[in-house]
Structures are given as C-alpha cells and as structure tokens.
Amino acid sequence: MISILDETNAVPLFPLVKGINQIFKEQGFLKQALGLDYREQQHAMALSVAESMITDTPLLFEAGTGVGKSLAYLIPGLIMGIESKRPFIVSSHTIALQEQILQNDLPMCRSLFEGIETLNKYIAFKTALLIGKGNYLCNYRLDKAFSSQAELFPTEEQKELERIADWAERSKDGIRQELNPMPRPEVWEWVTADNAACKKGNCNPQTCFYRKARAKIESANLIIINHSLLFSFINAGAIPGSNIPGILFPHDFLVLDEAHTVPSIATKHLGMRVSSYALEFALKMLYNPLKRKGLFSKRSMSSDRELVVDALNGCSEFFSHLRGEFLNVKDVFRVTQKGFVDTSVIVPLRRLTDRLTMLCQQEQNTKRQEDLEGFSDRIKSYANSITLFIEQSEEDHVYWLESSGKTKQIVNLQTAPIDVAPYIRKYIFNAQTSSVFTSATLSINENPQNFREKCGAENEMFLLENSPFDYENHTNIYVVEDAPSFEYDKQSKLHEYFADYIQFCASMSEGGLLVLFTSYAEMKKTALLNRTSVRIEGRKILVQGEGIPRSEMLKMFKDDGNAVLFGTDSFGTGVDIPGKALSQVILTRLPFENPSHPISQARSEWVSERGGSPFVDIMLPDAIIKFRQGVGRLIRKTNDKGAITVLDSRILKKEYGRQFLGALPKTLFTKMSKATRTKLFTIPK
Q1: CA–CA distance, 324 with 317 (Å, rounded to integer)
Q2: Do the strands 670-672 and 88-92 form a parallel or antiparallel pair, or are they unpaired?
Q3: Disulfide check for 666: which of 105, 107, 313, 471 has CB 3.0–4.6 Å away?
Q4: Alpha-carbon distance 179 to 483, whole Å?
Q5: Is-contact 420 267, C-beta < 8 A?
Q6: Distances, alpha carbon 595 to alpha carbons 111, 193, 388, 601, 627, in Å
C-alpha cells in the first residue's frame, strides 16, 4: 500500500511555498538550471497550486495557452508528494498530454532537481502509469490457454493466441495496446489479467506484467491516469473509504489537467453498460453448444451444460426482442418507462450463478475453482445490471439502448447520471484532499459559473491567468460573412463551399492547415472534393476515420509540415503542434452538439423543469468551450504565427454570436467574403 500521511509527516505551508517561489521567480532555479524564460503567469499558478496541495483544498485554475501549467503543478506536486510521503495523481484526457508529461515535462523536472543542490533530494522521484487491469497480459492464463487450445480454440483463434505469445516474449510491459493490430477481444479474454486466476498464488511477481505494474504504482511518488479510468475506478468503488481522506488511494492528492472534459467523461463512466456480445461471450466460454467446447465441456454434468444453454437462449431471445422492437429504425433508443420489458431473462442467469456458486464450494482443484468464481461474479454482475436497467432503479439516471458492431447486431444497455455534479462533488471535492482542476478553457468570457455548476464546484476557489502569447501581432482572424444557410439538409451543398474556402486558404501560404468539422459526413464529402474537383495541389490530405490512428496521423501531419488535416471534435483538443506545421486553423461550423442523444434530451428536460433554457444553459456554453479549444490549437509557442478562419456566418448574424466573438484570442477580426478574400487574407510574417 502507498504510504499514508500522519500528522508528523505534515509539511508546513510556508517553507514549501517559499521553495516554489525560489524555483519559479524571475532569475529563479528554472532559469538557472534549465535556462527557461520567466513567466509571471506560471509563477502565480505554481504558488496557488502549492497552497491548494498544502491546505488540502480544491482549486479551479484556468491557465491560458503558454502559461506552462504542466510544470506549475508537477514541480509542487512532486515536492509535496516526496516530503509528505503521499501519492500524487495526475489525470489527463488525452494520450498526447500523458506522453508530453512522461517524455518532456518529467525529464525537465528531474534536470531541475539535479541542477540545484538544494533540490537534489527529489531527483529519484518514481512515476507509474495506471491503466486498467484488463489491458495487461497474464502469462499464467496464456500458458493455461495454450494447454487447452485444442479444446477451446478454433484454428483462427489458435493463430491469434500464437501471435500474442510471440509478442509476450518481447514485450516489456505486456499491455495490449502495444500489440499491432490489437488482439481479438474473444481471444484476449482468455489471457487478460482481469480475472480471478491472475493472483499472487499463480503469478510470479517478478514476471507477471500486472504485478510488476502494481508494484511500481505502490512505490510511485507520481501516478499518471486518464479521466476515463479515474471515474471508472470511482464508479467501481475503488476509493479509500468514507472516513479516509483521498480519491483513489489513502491521503492522495490530485491534479486533473484538460479539466474542461471532466463533466462529459464522468457522465460516461459513472453509469452502467451491458453488451449482448460480452454476456453471450462469457456464457459461451462456459459452454458453447455449437462447438461443444468450454469450461463445462468436460468433467461437468449435462444438467450444468443445459443451464448454460438455457441462459444463452434466454439472452438471445431478450436481445433479439430489444433489437427488433426498439432498434429497427435508429441505432439509439431512449427508454423512459420502468419495466418496459419483462425480467424473465434474469431467471436462467440466476439459476446458472447459483449453480456456479455451489460448484465453487465443492471444487477441490484450486485453479478450476478460480475460473468458476470468475464466471460466477461476472454473470451475476450482468444479471444485476440488466435488472437495474429494466426497473430503472436509479431515478437520477437516463436509460437507453444502442446498437453497435459492423452489422449493428450488438445491443448495449446503457445508463448515465443526468446531473453529474453531485457525484463529482461527493467523490472529489468532498474527499478531504487537494484537487486541482486546470485547463485553458474553464470559463466563458472569464466567468466560470457554467463549469462550477457542471462539476458541483460552486463554492471552490477559481483563479485565472491569461495566455502570455502575442495574439495581437502573431494572429490574423477571419470571419466569413457570405456563408450559405446552415440548415440540416441532406441535399446541402455546404461541402462545396467548405472545399472552395479550404482550397483558397491552402493556396495563400505555406505550412499546415487543421480543418475542424462538426459532422463526419460533411468532412468526408469536403475531403473528397479537395482530392478531386477542387484539388489542393502539392499538399498531403489526411482525413480522420480513414484507418490511421489519431496519434500516427498527428505525427504524419507534424513531420510533413505542409499537410491539410481534416478532423472532428477529437482533433479540436489535445493537439499540440508548434511551428509552421500548423499555421492555419479553419472552423467550418460553430461546434454545437446534436441534441438528439438520450443524455442531451434528459438534461434538456431536467433544465427546463427547473425553469432554465437548454440552449442557453447547455448547448451554448458547451459550444463556446469547444470553439475556444479549436481556436487554441494555432499558437503553441512564443514565436508561432498563423491565421484562424471561421466559415460560419452565424457568428455575425445571431445574437449569441457575440459570445463566440468574445471567445476569440483577440478583439480585432476581419470580415471576409469570396469577393474580398484575395485582397484581405494574409498570414502574419
């Protein structure tokens, strides 16, 4: 277990703040050891973060692009963690930020500690990356799968198992994301560490990937995690306890970077999800009646196999009914009525789990007992979740069905809290420990009220430091005034308009272009035109969703230096490409969410019932934050220069457009039309 703080380990406030001041002040240790320029905003942030950590109080801190917020929380956090022997957790939204922290920021921290004698005692800080147990390979289960592959695995799956085994011999960390292409889910299920069989009695701590990773986490001063896993752990009950300060570990303290995404990520992971594919797969691992294979294929009575067959038939009938009745027209269907279907599917699942519990008690073979226990827990969890869904046991949640998979045959039962604020308040702000929420976009025109309400942070401290970058001289902003109607019409010719403007912008300068869309369909149609009839000459065109992973696409974009990248929401945040490789950002539409999703519908109803306006209170604030994020992709370093172009004239014509204009990084912008653009458009030199 990570060390627990007692009163004798407490760090006095003044010495730590004084030390942070020495590091970040003008001509301070950052300048002496690393040659970094003084940033007044970074200095102020570091002092505020240090006070939050020492006093175990929450803090909301908006730090504009270029403030250097990573060092402003990493350095105080590492010093605090080492001095107090408390675990320091940093959570991010994107892999890109995690990589930046691990590959760039932490080496800078270590160099700082090495370069200043009074900081030498912090040199040996330890870090660990915390990911879900299901991402690790279990060598014990891999060996076991090989010993039974003739019984359980068809030829195709045997080959996949062999590929995993070959990779396992070379792998350092045993994380499935390292294997390219990713392992097939049905085979990975047999070798993942997320199983009762992967435990100390079976797995050598020296060779088990998960146990080695866990040991690193337990001895780490800094633990890096992502928001999704953080809230998944919280939802699963992985918290210190009601009377113990901390969020994931006793007496830990937390920084959430890219915190503007926290409300949406928490919503997704504080709910429940049941997949027809996953449930059927778990049952077939017990016994597959078509192949006559599985754990029950030998040494089990025929009555046990019949219980599995009954459960499979019950689930097949249940999910087929849901698919035919509710998902035959659309892929998403919101469920608003309790008991909308009968619960007969639960009966065979309960019978099976009761029998598995009995078999666990009778089984003499420890390894087989572990397998039975694992299946019992998993199927029992599925049965409980299906019951919860049908009965809508949690009244503050929204419930919906969703089809997925290539042929849309998989049925998912999903829930999410309508208002996530009470959950964030309970598990983070009321955890009696420091939690720093930071991002470049927590407020709207410097007002954090909307973010406060979403997170349950109405009473928490909010501070803001604007970007130190020279947007006035380094950025030109253009807003078109002749955009066609933005009606949601399938016959719309908007993609022709977009393609024409993108071609024009590309022809006016060197350097890369990032073009952000709100619709995949419009993006694909526009990209097709820019590759054919409205061609962009001499530039590589990269389009999201064409089979290239996001991280690899960004690397290609950066390395090329003159490409055009077409992307949607995921490219509007977390993209950090300084220099000419990204010299223009084009926003095709104001980024309003589609309000048809069940979560959006339920929240709109919830706001309306309380006398609010869904557009004013939900859609508009969310769109402005996304807009700020997209615009913020352009200037990433002091010397960066470029242009921002908005191709949506609603920003000029609608009353709410003024709020988007207020979110631009400078006050002055240029109105532009097709007739005037050649004369007006330039990139700052």
Answers
A1: 10
A2: unpaired
A3: 471
A4: 46
A5: yes
A6: 48, 39, 26, 6, 17
- pLDDT computed for residue 15 by the predictor: 65
Q: With contact defined as beta carbons under 8 Å apart, do 168 and 142 qualify?
A: yes
- H helices, E strands: number in the chain: 29, 18
> Each residue of 179-194: b (16+ CB within 10 Å) or e?
beeebeeebbbbbbbb
The whole-angstrom distance between residue 281's C-alpha and the CA centroid of its chain comes to: 26
Q: How many CB atoms lie within 10 A of CB 200?
A: 9
Give the span between the Cα atoms of 322 and 412, in whole angstroms: 10
Q: What's the CA dihedral at 306, 307, 308, 314 to 10 degrees?
A: 110
Burial of 538 (0-12, 13-18, 19+ CB in 10 A): exposed
Taking Cα atoms as reference points, which of 269, 274, 272, 273 lies closest to residue 427?
Answer: 269
Three-state SS at 89: strand
Contact in structure between 241 and 431 (CB atoms under 8 Å): no
The overall pTM is greater than 0.70: yes
Nearest to 407 by CA among 519, 290, 277, 318: 277
Q: Distance between CA 35 and CA 223 in Å, rounded? A: 27
Q: How far apart are CA 178 and CA 162, in angstroms?
A: 16
Q: Which residue has the tokens 């299946």?
A: 375
Pairing of strands 88-92, 222-226: parallel
Between 404 and 106, where is the model more confident?
106
Residue 181: both structure tokens together: 């292409």
Listed as own residue / partner, the contacts of 635-639 with beta carbons closer than 8 Å and 24 or more positions apart are: 635/65, 635/66, 635/467, 635/469, 635/471, 635/474, 635/475, 635/665, 636/65, 636/66, 636/576, 636/577, 636/578, 636/582, 637/66, 637/578, 637/579, 638/66, 638/468, 638/469, 638/470, 639/474
Mean pLDDT of 444-472: 96
Q: What element of type H or E holds 274?
A: strand 272-275
On the question of pLDDT at 671 being above 50, the answer is yes
Q: Which residue has the higher pLDDT, 290 or 194?
A: 290
Residue 292 banded pLDDT, cuts 50, 70, 90 = confident
Q: Range with the lowest mean pLDDT among 127-141, 193-207, 432-446?
A: 193-207
- The mean pLDDT value for 514-518 works out to 96
